[in-house]
Please model this.
Amino acid sequence: MADGPTTRRAVLTTGAAILATAPAAARAKTAEKAFDIVVFDSRYPESRRFAAVMAKSGATPLDVGEEIGDLWFGPLARLDAKTRVCGLTTHADFFISSSFGREKGKALRYEGQHDARAPGEVTHQIGCTATAASLEGCGRDWAGSLAQGLLKSDATRTRKAKAKVRTARPPKAAATLFSWVLA
Model:
């Protein structure tokens, strides 16, 4: 490795190399319902918390950074049919991810909207009733509870049911974030 500052390009290139060379057998050893990759936006504490919980289950965290397209043309460019990707991002990054995911043969299997614009609370529109149940009584750590709920439920199957849950709003909460699963 060359001396000098680490560039964004170097990080993306290294991530792509790791994903491309990770044997399928190693991925098969992870828990049956674990995700392979979690996309998050480090500007938002809730997104960082969601990624931390997913990373503990074996998912590779990828930060959106300034441009989601860099991920889809970098580390996410060579997704295989079995790779499961989840995220907690802004609407723009969710929209772009679902579009690029579709191009890679991925279907949107789960979608949740987490609106923190109301004072004191977050309203969650959840696309999986089992995952929505994980938010009941979670307090301000809704992002961690959401990640645990997605890990426990089979959110990779298409869901039609919608559930609405309200939780306490953490300090400095983002206006609205979207959780999603592509598989």
